[in-house]
Design brief:
Blueprint: H1 15-23, H2 44-53, H3 73-78, E1 82-92, H4 96-108, H5 116-125, H6 130-135, E2 137-142, E3 145-152, H7 158-164, E4 172-183, E5 195-206, H8 207-213, H9 222-237, H10 247-258, H11 261-271, E6 274-283, E7 292-301, E8 307-315, E9 322-329
Parallel strand pairs: 3-5
Antiparallel strand pairs: 1-2, 1-4, 2-3, 4-5, 6-7, 7-8, 8-9
């Protein structure tokens, strides 16, 4: 059966989430994130991460000569550990003094009739309280577990963090894309010792908004397509130990938020009385100087146990994964 055209989900276009987060911040000058941005000294955690990682991609100078002595580009890339994680962002107080300062700022604001979370978001998003946002410890939890302390590479991207904690009726999911740094020291985030992730981009959305943004094939009913898409997305989210740090998990998370064809295939298979039996990720035989993986979706017939497999190739060499081949039938190769 023909697959839908390979195009990325509109919800996750790189420019839109950043603009939306900036527009939703009441205190941003001129309605944008860059209106008040100015160079600032890096926090101790970022300085620690940069010291451990060396020159990050956005900071690197001219590329080293590949034939000269010393560490070349391949060696520099091998030391980078990238993150493409899905979870919820929470704001924590690293020290009692920050919590007391936040309480004083809240007392000066008009928060009558608001919940604690609404008042916290309102105060933190005001321009005059941006100094508090820089002191807050931002934690990414995955399936309820504290997984990363996240920090922006660019201080102007604090808006993305603030927008991620805006109170909503349905739970929001944040996709964090960046570089994994060292374990945070115990005095940085009130004793929390998890890896620091320095991010370049964050997408924040609800699961329902993601499903609604996926192009639906005309031959599939909206209700059936929505149910199939939600089940596949939940299966990817619930995969064991998916912290978005390995090549396999980064590829899966990328497909979950950027490639609608996997959802169309799931809906079509369910309509044909197949069930999703497995999702596997294997190194691609095309891998050479690039790290390419095959993501394989297996569907078993509920009556005959006959299994159909479909796969898509993803390049995960760099910080931003991308599609190599479209979703196609997969055939096990004999020995």
């Amino acid at each position: 059966m023909d697959q839908p055209e390979a195009k990325e989900i509109a919800l996750a276009e790189p420019g839109e989430p950043r603009a939306a987060a900036a527009a939703s911040t009441p205190g941003s000058a001129g309605g944008g994130a860059m209106g008040f941005a100015r160079p600032r000294e890096a926090s101790p955690a970022i300085a620690l991460a940069r010291a451990a990682l060396g020159a990050l991609p956005a900071q690197a100078g001219p590329a080293p000569c590949p034939t000269c002595g010393g560490v070349g580009m391949e060696g520099a890339m091998a030391t980078a550990s990238y993150v493409y994680a899905l979870g919820q962002i929470e704001a924590r107080f690293p020290r009692p003094s920050v919590e007391k300062e936040m309480a004083q700022a809240t007392g000066r604001a008009d928060t009558a009739g608001q919940t604690d979370q609404q008042a916290f978001y309102q105060v933190l998003s005001q321009r005059e309280n941006r100094y508090l946002a820089r002191q807050i410890c931002w934690v990414l939890t995955i399936q309820g577990l504290e997984t990363y302390i996240v920090q922006p590479r660019d201080p102007a991207d604090l808006d993305l963090l603030i927008g991620a904690i805006e109170p909503r009726e349905s739970p929001w999911i944040s996709t964090v894309i960046g570089v994994r740094g060292p374990i945070a020291p115990p005095d940085y985030c009130n004793g929390l010792m998890v890896p620091i992730a320095i991010f370049d981009q964050i997408y924040t959305f609800s699961r329902d908004a993601l499903i609604e943004a996926i192009p639906r094939p005309e031959q599939i009913a909206a209700e059936a397509f929505g149910a199939a898409s939600r089940e596949l997305f939940d299966r990817i989210m619930l995969m064991t130990d998916n912290a978005g740090a390995t090549d396999e998990h980064r590829a899966l998370n990328y497909l979950a938020v950027r490639y609608p064809a996997i959802y169309a295939r799931a809906a079509q298979s369910f309509a044909q009385d197949f069930s999703l039996s497995a999702v596997d990720v294997r190194p691609s035989p095309l891998s050479g100087t690039r790290r390419i993986v095959d993501v394989i979706f297996s569907y078993a017939n509920r009556n005959t146990d006959f299994t159909e497999k479909y796969f898509v190739r993803v390049d995960v060499t760099d910080e931003f994964p991308y599609l190599v081949t479209k979703l196609s039938p997969y055939y096990d190769r004999g020995l």
